[in-house]
UniProtKB/TrEMBL annotation:
<dbReference type="InterPro" id="IPR013786">
    <property type="entry name" value="AcylCoA_DH/ox_N"/>
</dbReference>
<dbReference type="GO" id="GO:0050660">
    <property type="term" value="F:flavin adenine dinucleotide binding"/>
</dbReference>
<dbReference type="InterPro" id="IPR009075">
    <property type="entry name" value="AcylCo_DH/oxidase_C"/>
</dbReference>
<keyword id="KW-0560">Oxidoreductase</keyword>
<comment type="similarity">
    <text>Belongs to the acyl-CoA dehydrogenase family.</text>
</comment>
<dbReference type="InterPro" id="IPR037069">
    <property type="entry name" value="AcylCoA_DH/ox_N_sf"/>
</dbReference>
<keyword id="KW-0285">Flavoprotein</keyword>
<dbReference type="Pfam" id="PF02771">
    <property type="entry name" value="Acyl-CoA_dh_N"/>
</dbReference>
<dbReference type="InterPro" id="IPR036250">
    <property type="entry name" value="AcylCo_DH-like_C"/>
</dbReference>
<dbReference type="Pfam" id="PF00441">
    <property type="entry name" value="Acyl-CoA_dh_1"/>
</dbReference>
<dbReference type="Pfam" id="PF02770">
    <property type="entry name" value="Acyl-CoA_dh_M"/>
</dbReference>
<dbReference type="GO" id="GO:0016627">
    <property type="term" value="F:oxidoreductase activity, acting on the CH-CH group of donors"/>
</dbReference>
<feature type="domain" description="Acyl-CoA oxidase/dehydrogenase middle">
    <location>
        <begin position="138"/>
        <end position="228"/>
    </location>
</feature>
<keyword id="KW-0274">FAD</keyword>
<protein>
    <submittedName>
        <fullName>Putative acyl-CoA dehydrogenase YdbM</fullName>
        <ecNumber>1.3.99.-</ecNumber>
    </submittedName>
</protein>
<feature type="domain" description="Acyl-CoA dehydrogenase/oxidase C-terminal">
    <location>
        <begin position="294"/>
        <end position="386"/>
    </location>
</feature>
<dbReference type="InterPro" id="IPR009100">
    <property type="entry name" value="AcylCoA_DH/oxidase_NM_dom_sf"/>
</dbReference>
Amino acid sequence: MSALPLRRPPATNEDPTPATVDAALLAHLSAQFAATAADHDRSGAFPHPNFAALQSHGLVGLVAPAAHGGGGATLATARRVIAAVARGEPATALILTMTYLQHHALARSDSRWPPHLRERVLRSAVERGALINALRVEPALGSPARGGLPATVARREGSGWKIDGHKLYTTGIEGLSWLAVWARTDEAAPRTGVFLVPRDAPGVRVIASWDHLGLRASGSHEVVFENVAIELDHAVDLRAPADWAPDAGSQTDIDAHATQQAWMTVLLGSLYDAVAQAARDWLAGFLNTRAPGSLGAPLASLPRVQEHVGEIEALLRTNRVLLDDATRAVDQGRAQPATDSGLLKYTVTTNAIRVVELALQLSGNHGLTRQNPLERHYRDVLCSRIHTPQNDAILVAAGKRALLSAGAAA
């Protein structure tokens, strides 16, 4: 199939019109990635061919600002791409999601990164397909979202920094070019923040430990930093620990954090919803062709089966409406409270898991057979629970807000 490039209508003012992506291209990529998804799942190999295909169509730099050569895509366009990729091979979609989230953060006018480093990272994505992800989770700390100081330490040495530490779940590490490392300084009053480390810097060592139930091709291995030297200005965003709280800073800072959270939950929600859609598609084909001798007709003719498929459709429709609404709000500049973004993730991922569970219930042993994709979809969709924010934190925050609101009203 010939390349179908990004489409960008002519700009009518100083702000370039965001790029859009051809639907036929997305359908083609979904089918292409689905054809090798089982191979990547079995081997756990990084999906290099998938990213070569994405880069050939300009999709790695899709979210990067037009000023840096990128597509300047809206959340709606980024969501369509992530959903299409995930419908074919969700580990590829997860790695791409992490890069999109970093590019969106860098595109904000309030980014604290030095302009020349923003330019370098974004240009490398557009021109070379360079991927970036944040490395935050540690063996002792867990997720920084739960609080606490990282054990990864950056110390001033000469005209730069030296970094030592150990990170877990570094999604996409085998294909990354840039590592946004969460660390603390060794100062008397430690600052915490992001240090930009080139993936090929001496002292960066990967421990190939990722052997997971689902998203096996994401390559979320461990990374050890041993005396890794970076330049002084690669400490791209350092703050006092208290200044990293979601409600710290000005209202502009709070709104920016909420918008970043909304991007994350919409893209992750779209990814796992797409896995559920792929499960529904396989199930529909199975039910229409499976005709037991005792029935003399396809399983799709049974009212009980039709009822359960109707439940699947209801769950997927709910997801679509919620994701559409949240996407529209973000792209129209309406701030979304972080609590609402958390509830979106909780509802969409819970529905997605339920869809695949119903598909397994209707398909029986066929759905659990390794030669069929449904058991892989189930393993992949279960991974939705582990992304920040986790369900317990989401529900506690929502419950606390509801109770405080009710108490104030009383």
